[in-house]
């Protein structure tokens, strides 16, 4: 326990359940640091709450990764509900309302549910000896309590930071998913990609499926799963996707029982057989977009090959959609094409390549995410400019993000984000101009940046707002200006 922690913060009397805002403000005072990696304290309080004595849902899927966690989880939620399952989700951070972090069957948790959950957490942590919790740890316990109370078929949990030592990892997942691995949160996870991979692979459990959602993960992820006898299902090996363009309606090839190579089962690696067309697990390059529809190949819990054809573009990364399907299949969901099409057509995730008129909002805040945005960002109409309104935090790789976006951006607006972590707009501008970029405005806030940009916006212009959850949240709070016909 940190020495700087005061006895008063540990033993203060529980609040009478008031407003959610009151609770959130109170929780920020409970621990001397915002992030305190480790499971001992949160596990002790969870035990007192009875969260570790019985499953919080019939099935639990936990998702870790540098990027793609939110979209993978959102698609799993929509897909599972489309198949008739009662679901609950826990994600972070939120954009506009804390309630976004907890959903029950597609609906945000009500204030009174969260207030009741925080009261349960507070009562448990103040049992002797009193235990200090961070804001995130208290929020995680509240979410788990709400999910457990909802009697769910499936709980979907998103790791906040890393994996092995994240508060979410007190729950044993029936399926563990790692989406992508890249450098982020270097002050906590370091810069060694293999070590980052091992940290995120800490969500895997012995003998439980480990789903790997990228073909470029460090070997440490699969090695960590194999070391605990967790069967590995990798994108491009055990499951895959391909585009369907025009008459190119490729169907899955049924290779029968020999699809699983017995020599690899012992190491926990499930691999498709290789046919004359190449590995069925191969992923056809799609440049992260689909022109019409796509098909998915994967495995069910019995190791049988299954396929889904004619799936719609969800407007989110297809790799993540394929990963979501494989994780659900291993979680026991009997996938049908109709239910999957219905879900993928309806899924929405605010702040991920979200178009609002001329504005595209994306919360990407590291180079890996920025590279994806740059690939997917459409060209503006002839004569139009591609603006970027960017605001970032001090602990993020601004140079890497700028380098990824620079070839696609003609005009920049730099904004300062609120708080000690906010990177000054002038510093962002200096980094951009030193690389040859054109910075048109610097503003003291995202809102001021929007106002400045609005004066120059034409009908053919497009604007990317990015760099942080805080940047996007500020823009979602108010209607965005659109250019008008003169």
TrEMBL record:
SUPFAM superfamilies: MurD-like peptide ligases, catalytic domain, MurD-like peptide ligases, peptide-binding domain
Pathway the protein contributes to: Cofactor biosynthesis; tetrahydrofolylpolyglutamate biosynthesis; Cofactor biosynthesis; tetrahydrofolate biosynthesis; 7,8-dihydrofolate from 2-amino-4-hydroxy-6-hydroxymethyl-7,8-dihydropteridine diphosphate and 4-aminobenzoate: step 2/2
EC number(s) recorded for this UniProt protein: 6.3.2.12, 6.3.2.17
Keyword Plastid belongs to the record: no
GO MF annotation list: ATP binding; dihydrofolate synthase activity; metal ion binding; tetrahydrofolylpolyglutamate synthase activity
One GO term of the biological process aspect: tetrahydrofolate biosynthetic process
Keyword Chaperone: no
Gene Ontology cellular-component annotations: cytoplasm
Reaction catalysed by this enzyme: (6R)-5,10-methylenetetrahydrofolyl-(gamma-L-Glu)(n) + L-glutamate + ATP = (6R)-5,10-methylenetetrahydrofolyl-(gamma-L-Glu)(n+1) + ADP + phosphate + H(+); 7,8-dihydropteroate + L-glutamate + ATP = 7,8-dihydrofolate + ADP + phosphate + H(+); 10-formyltetrahydrofolyl-(gamma-L-Glu)(n) + L-glutamate + ATP = 10-formyltetrahydrofolyl-(gamma-L-Glu)(n+1) + ADP + phosphate + H(+); (6S)-5,6,7,8-tetrahydrofolyl-(gamma-L-Glu)(n) + L-glutamate + ATP = (6S)-5,6,7,8-tetrahydrofolyl-(gamma-L-Glu)(n+1) + ADP + phosphate + H(+)
Chain ranges of the Mur ligase central domain: 63-209
Residues in the signal sequence: none
Keywords, ordered alphabetically: ATP-binding, Folate biosynthesis, Ligase, Magnesium, Metal-binding, Nucleotide-binding
Domain (Mur ligase C-terminal): residue spans on this chain: 351-469
Function recorded in the entry: Functions in two distinct reactions of the de novo folate biosynthetic pathway. Catalyzes the addition of a glutamate residue to dihydropteroate (7,8-dihydropteroate or H2Pte) to form dihydrofolate (7,8-dihydrofolate monoglutamate or H2Pte-Glu). Also catalyzes successive additions of L-glutamate to tetrahydrofolate or 10-formyltetrahydrofolate or 5,10-methylenetetrahydrofolate, leading to folylpolyglutamate derivatives.
Family, per entry: Belongs to the folylpolyglutamate synthase family.
PANTHER family reported in the protein's UniProt record: DIHYDROFOLATE SYNTHETASE-RELATED (PTHR11136:SF0), FOLYLPOLYGLUTAMATE SYNTHASE-RELATED (PTHR11136)
Protein name, entry field: Dihydrofolate synthase/folylpolyglutamate synthase
Originating species: Vreelandella nigrificans
